[in-house]
Amino acid sequence: MEVLTEADDYTHEAVQIRQDFVRERTGVSLSHVTRYSFDPKVVGGNVEQFVGVAQVPIGLAGPLLVNGEHARGEYYVPMATAEGTLVASYNRGMRLVYEAGGVTTTIMADHMQRAPAFVMPSAREARAFAGWLDEHLPEIKEAAESTTRTGKLQGIEKYTAGRMLYTRFNYTTGDAAGQNLTGKATQEACRWIRARYPAVEHYILESNFATDKKSSQVNMLHTRGKRVTAEATIPNELFRRIMRSDTALMFRARQISNLGGFMSGVNNNGAHSANGITAIFIATGQDAANVAESSAAYVHAELRPNGDYYYSVTIPSLIVATYGGGTGLPTQRECLEMLGCYGKDGVRVFTEIIAAAVLCGELSLGSAIVSEEWVEAHDLYGRNRP
C-alpha cells in the first residue's frame, strides 16, 4: 500500500488508494461504500483513514408541534435508522400530541463538565484546598476562559475521598457540545492552580467523575449537557380515536412499568428514549456515543379526574450541538437546517425539539403495548426478510 502523508490524506487519490487496498485484501467490490456526494476534504477532523460512507436511511416524522421557550411551531424531524416501525411510531405519537395542542418544553439547566482529581498530602490538606478553590474562583475562571470564546466556567463542585479532592468544573459551551472545549479550558485552569498551590502532589485532568459517555446518577441529578423537560396533557378521547387505547389503561401500564424497572435495577423509567435520540443524533451529526448519557429519562404520568392524561419526560443529560463536530458535514448540516437550528443560537431550539420528539415516542410505544398492537406493527412495518 502506498504511504500517504498527513497533508494528502483527504485527497481523492488517497481515498482511492485505501479503497483499492480494501478490495485487494477482502475481495469486496465496495460498490456502495465508495459512493458519496462531498469532497473528502470536508471530513478532516471528523474521521481518519477515510474510505467511504455508511448510508443510513432517513425517515421524516411530523409535524411535531412544540410550545417551547426556544422551539416554537411545527417541525419535521429527520430520523436515521434501520429499524422498521420506529419512524412510524414517532410519527403517530406526534399526531396524537399535535391534536392535543402540542408539547411544552422547558430547559432547566445547562452544564458540561470536566472532572479533575487532585491528590493532596492528607485529607486535611484536601479540605483546605477545597476552600482555596472557592477563594480563587475568579482567577481560575479567567485562566480557563482564556482558551475559549464561547465556554464560560460557572463553578466548581468539590467532593473529598481520602486525601483526594474530586472536582467537577461546570461550563456553558454555547452551541457546541463542549467536551473538547471543557478539556482544554480545564487543563489550563489546572496548570494555573498547580503553579500557585504547591501542596498539590498530582492531578489527573479527568477522574471519570464526569462519567463521559456513561450514564450515571451524578449526571442525572446534577446535569451534563442540557436538562430539559417535555410535557403534554392528552384527552382520553384522542387516545381512543388515534391510539385505540385508554388513559386509565395507560396509567395502569405506567405503574406496572415503574415497578418492573425498579425490580430490574434500571437507571431510568422511560420506554425507549434511546431509539428516537439515536436516530436524530445520526441524522444531525451528533456524537452517537453520547446516547449512553442522553437517553436516560425521568418519566412522570398522572391520570386527571376528568380522564385526561398528563405526561412528562425529563432528560437530565442531553448532550447536543448545532455547531462543530459532525454537525457541519453536508448531510448532517442539511438535516439540522430542515429543523431551522444549524449553527449559532440553534442548540436550545434543537434541545427542545429532541425532548418533544422523545415524549411523542414514549406515548406511542406505550399505547401500542396496551392496545396489543406492538407485535403486529413490527410484523407489518419491521420485516425486511425473504
Automatic annotation (TrEMBL):
Gene3D superfamilies: 3-hydroxy-3-methylglutaryl-coenzyme A Reductase, Chain A, domain 2, Hydroxymethylglutaryl-CoA reductase, class I/II, NAD/NADP-binding domain. One of its GO terms (biological process) is coenzyme A metabolic process. One of its GO terms (molecular function) is hydroxymethylglutaryl-CoA reductase (NADPH) activity. CDD domains: HMG-CoA_reductase_classI (cd00643). Pfam families: HMG-CoA_red. It comes from the Bacteria. Keywords: NADP, Oxidoreductase. Coiled coil: none annotated. Belongs to the HMG-CoA reductase family. This is hydroxymethylglutaryl-CoA reductase (NADPH). It comes from Actinomadura rudentiformis. The lineage of its organism: Bacteria, Bacillati, Actinomycetota, Actinomycetes, Streptosporangiales.
